[in-house]
Structure formats: C-alpha cells, structure tokens
Amino acid sequence: MSHSLDINQYFGSGAIEFIICHAEVSIAFAEEKKIPELLKTFPNATKYLKTIVSFGKVTPEQKQEVEKFGRAIYSWTEFLQLGESQSFDLPVKKRSDICTIMYTSGTTGDPKGVLISNRSIITLLAGVKRLLENVNDKLTEKDVYLSYLPLAHTFDRVIEETFIWHGGSIGFWCGDVKLLIEDLGELKPTFFCAVPRVLDRVYSGLTQKIISGGFLKKALFNFAYSYKLNNMKKGQNHAVASPLLDKIVFDKVKQGLGGSVRLILSGAAPLSLHVESYLRVVSCAHVLQGYGLTETCAGTFVSLPNELDMLGTVGPPVPNVDACLESVPEMGYDALASTPRGEICVKGDTLFSGYYKREDLTKEVLVEGWFHTGDIGEWQPNGSMKIIDRKKNIFKLSQGEYVAVENLENIYSQVPSVESIWVYGNSFEAFLVTVVTPSKPALEHWAEENGISMDFNSLCGDSRAKSYILEELSKIGKEKKLKGFEFIKAVHLDPVPFDMERDLITPTYKKKRPQLLKYYQNVIDDMYKSGNKPLA
C-alpha cells in the first residue's frame, strides 16, 4: 500500500518517524522550514520513505543528505516539472475506500492511525450542509474561512472541505498566535473556528480593556451587555436584540475580529460558560460549541444559533449521526435516570473504519457498531448534550473519594486570575494540589492594589500571590458548592503557560496528564511535603 504524509507543526520528529514507518509512507510533502525536522527521521524512515517534496526550495546540503541514502528530494518547482506533458487516468474510487489515515496526537502513548473513508467525510459534510440550511445560515461562495488549526487536524480539515464544496474562500494564518488578530483584520473572515484557549485570550483581552477604560466606558459597556443579553434570553436573534448598541458599543469588538465574522465555532475542548455567553453578546456573531473526535470525523454534536438555553452544551447531534448514553456504574452515572448521564456512544456512516494495524484497539472502542468516546455526557431536556466528565480522568483520593478532575478544572478555570490550570491528586494523598498559570494582567493588577512591586516571574514565586490565587479558587469552589475533598489545598504558580514545546499539551490544547506529572513531579512532591495539610 502506498501512502503520503503531509508534515507540519502537529507532531514532533519522534512521532513523525513513528507515523512514516507505521503507515509505510513512501512520499512526504513538507514546508521548506520543516525539511530539517523530516531529515531527523533518517535513517530509520528510509526503509519506507522514497521521496520528499518541499513546498519551497531545497538546499544542496539537504539534497546531498537525502541522496546519500539513495532517496529523492525535489523543490516545488522541480516537482511540478516532473508532470509536464504527461497525462494519467485517475483511479476509480469507491465510497468505502480509505480517503486518509489521520493520526491522533493522543495524550498518552504512540499516535493512533484513524482510518477515514470517503463515505465518512461525505456523510459528515452532507450533515453539516443540511444543518446550516435548516437554521437559515447556509454557506455561499462569498463566505471566507480563516484556517489556523493544524492541517493534520480533523476539525480544520472537514471545515476546509465544507468550504471547498460550497465554493467559499480559505485563508491561512501567518503562523504566530500573537498575530492572529492581525490575520483576522487582514482576511476579514465570515467563519472562524477556534479552540477555547484562543477564545479565552480574546475574552481576557476584551475584559482588560473595559477594566482599564474608565468608569463611564465601563458603565456603558455593562449596561449595553445586560440589555442585549436580556433581550437574547427573551428569544430575540442576536442581530435584532440591540442594533443601536451594536453600532455604538460592540462594533469595536466586531471590527477587532475582522468586521465580517458571523459564525464562531469552538471545538476540541470545553468552552467556559462565561466566555461563551460573553462572546455571544459582544462579538455580534453566532458563537457555537461543537463536539467530535478524529474517530467520528470531527462533527458529532453542535449547538444551534439563537438558542440561548444551549449555552454550556455542545448542542444536539448533527444530521446523519446517531448518539446514545451508556451507564457507567463505577462513576455513578445512570443513562436511564431522570437526568440521563453516561458515556457518549456514536453510530453511523461518519464513523472511522478502525485503527490502522491495531485491530485490538479497534475492538476495544467499537462495540456492535457503537463507538465508545470515553467522554461522559448529560442529555438536556432540550435535546442537547452537555459534556460533564471524562471516563479515564477520574482518580481516588486516599479516603476513597472519586475525583472527576476535568469537571473541577472547568470550574476553577472560571476564576478571572487563572489562565490555565492542572489539578492533581492520587490514591496515596488525601487532598488536591494544582499548578496554575496566572493571568498576567490580573495578577499584576492585584499586586499594584496591594502595594507589591515585583515583575511577573517574581510574583509567581511569592507566597502572598499563591495565597491570593488559592483564596480565589476557594471562593469559586464555595460558590459552585464543591465537596470538601474537591477543594484545592496547595498551589504552584508557573509564569509560562502549558505548551507543546515542553510536550505538556496537544496541538488542540488538551492536557497531557502523564507528561504534566513527570514535568512537575518535584513541585507536586514539595506541595505534599511542605505542610499544606488539608483543612479539617
């Protein structure tokens, strides 16, 4: 079997080498600046890899290195010349043929090769098309999409294919997250996909501007926000809830997102409720949460425009998808209870065809045609799904209490002074500890108010700052009526956000928990040893 591989920032060289050998890739296409990364896979990858094509140029040294192993490398110009004055018949394709092997980045272990058929992608695209038409928001050739998620990510891939199908335009970001707002201003997209971390940054930036804008500006913004939100709660479309205030107050936010965005889709991880509701009001666009996995071809659930009671949910299943809940007794989740809770299972033609060369793993998750996602959901009375937990991300404390860690992180991340948080506990300890990346503006504002003069890095090591963050975490814990064992008893502040460089998160910002534990092991040990005993 001959496979090709598109190399980009999604994987490090170790994973790339694994994928080339696992999928028996014979030709690889790579960005010019990623050629050195690809060459790190030599000599092992040369068992299968015969040809490399650069989307730019190739240096003489790179050509020499590749030819030393009897392999070929072409610049883009050279590659195009190979096909001049030649014609080929396209092979006949069937719906059941595998279109792509999409490797999941995975939070543990080697990446898994997810086999996705032509049928899966077309079924998903047809469902998305039908959904958009049903809510009077169909795509046209005038629509513009900004792509900034990795191309080797299913979420971005199916949106791009939807745009290609509808004849829309696709623009690619410059590659620097700090310049994403400038990219939005330049391209002026109508459709924007985001992961929560990016929307969290947009939210933090906006709230900080309002805080520093003076009393009158703050008062006007708060009035406009409450007025429009109340009208939307009464069932009014966001476009008619307060058109005058949109022009006077919220137009700057809209312009900051390029001025043309009408639909923002958030996926890959849960979006905080306060961020979602805030952006639905101030962005003058639909802000929708979606849910899916590589194995379900990305789209499984998506919330609907102008349905404010779907806030905090991922909406109903998209057309062409069947979904159900399966009870998880060991976690106390009953799919047949008055409030149905359980593991989300998915069935239908959008499902993957199995894991490449891993029939054992395929049988584990595909049972009688139902794909077991590992995510815990709760059906809402309006037919939408709320993600409340992860089946694997639970652990016992030493007193025997089960802790659903993702649910706690979602709650604690609502603290404005917290940018990102990782909560940890185990069965040998009686209480929870955490590593927090504080919000720089929020922590510096607190320090200024309290007469503490330090730079951000020094603040993160200061015991007073730790106590302040701990108090803020406790406040929201009380507000959300958390149980005693769910409260954080010790905190470490890291000025550097969890990142891919240290292998602490996936490209879609999911936490790699084993890697986080390994990286922060000494910090965790110190927190448990340093006398931060649980309160009685």
From TrEMBL:
Example GO molecular function: long-chain fatty acid-CoA ligase activity
Residue runs in coiled coils: none
Keyword field: Ligase
Residues spanning the membrane: none
Domain AMP-dependent synthetase/ligase span(s) in chain numbering: 8-356
Protein name, UniProt field: Long-chain fatty acyl CoA ligase
Gene that produces this protein: 11437197
